[in-house]
Amino acid sequence: MTEAEPAATASGLILGFADSARGCIVAWDMSANPDLDAAYQGAALYDGRTLRAYDLVVHGLSNHLAWRCPTRTLRALYAEHVSSRHLDVGVGSGYFLDRCRFPVAEPRLSLLDLNAQALSYAARRVQRYRPLTHVGSVLTAGRLTEAPFDSIALMYLLHCVPGNLTTKAAAFANLGPQLSDSGVLFGATILGSGVEHSLPARALMKLYNARQIFCNAEDRKADLEQALAQNFRDFSVSVRGSVALFVARGYSGRRDA
Ligand SMILES: C[S@@+](CC[C@H](N)C(=O)[O-])C[C@H]1O[C@@H](n2cnc3c(N)ncnc32)[C@H](O)[C@@H]1O
What is the spatial distance between Cα 103 and Cα 121, in angstroms, rounded to a whole number? Predict the structure, then answer.
């Protein structure tokens, strides 16, 4: 299996991602847990090459040109809510972790990702905080030993997770009990439906959903609000371009998870 060489242009890089993702998927042995196959297909995209280009392609170009949600808006969300006992889920390249300012010099930082390569890439990038890392799915990972957390971030994760926002609500039911009483869960996700997509956004949506890099064609704001309402007493969702930004507090479900 050969991987496609990413081209020098932005769109070439994006196609190169998809090709290298396929190469990576084949290399993974998923026989041990076939239920996670679909989730792995999205997560397996993130190998060393894609992770190195991720910041430029996603946070440098796509946010502005396709999704019409400036990266500074996402960074502001992160900066407002990140705490000194933080769990980052779906870490990717570790962009937000590296760029944010924690409220203390030595935060207690935990990382959770389905893809071990993304996890070690991000952990290396923020090794100054000596993060604890966990390989696992946001939909099924059990309670982490470091819980409770004062903040949990899900940045650009949910649009990669298979299913619709009704089934993706399992992420909130899984993570909610791991928040402290005053803790906050926040994040951003690209919506597929009910938003006005730019022309480049429509092209990327089509390509990424076909390649199972995204699974968000049916994701709409109202379903995100319902999923949050099922799990939290207080929440807000705002939309910027194609992106929903959400903040939730006060887990209202069972705490014995
Ligand atoms: C689009 S990247 C987001 C990276 C980063 N949060 C950011 O916004 O720059 C999605 C990340 O989620 C991870 N991921 C995908 N499905 C997952 C799942 N079911 N559970 C945990 N992580 C998952 C991928 O491996 C990847 O690291």
Answer: 23
Can you tell me the distance from the alpha carbon of 232 to that of 31, in angstroms, rounded to the nearest whole number?
A: 35
Give the residue with greater pLDDT, 146 vs 1.
Answer: 146
Rounded average pLDDT over 185-202: 97
Residue 54 CA to residue 141 CA, distance in Å, equals 25
Interatomic CA distance for residues 90 and 246, integer angstroms: 16
> What is the number of the ligand 1 atom nearest to the C-alpha of 154?
6
Domains of the chain by start residue, with CATH: 54-251 (3.40.50.150)
Nearest CA to ligand 1 atom 1: 156
Mean pLDDT of 206-213: 94
- Using the predicted structure, report yes or no on whether residue 149 has a pLDDT greater than 60: yes
- Ligand 1 center from residue 199 Cα (angstroms): 25
